[in-house]
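Fold it.
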Amino acid sequence: MAPEELRGSAFGLLALIQSGADFVASALVALLWTLVSPTAGFTFAGAAMGAALVALLVARRVGH
């Protein structure tokens, strides 16, 4: 969707956002695992994956 002259920067921004979100998600799961229980960490991770799947499906429908 980015203009051709900005595509490299757009991919760089995408990588930055993804890596930041990966770090935050991993830190949250680690905190839940340590402070609450391993089940809490896995439950959060599963819920986040489910929410991401729903968001992806909704975005795909809106894009068509």
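The CA atoms of residues 2 and 11 lie 9 Å apart.
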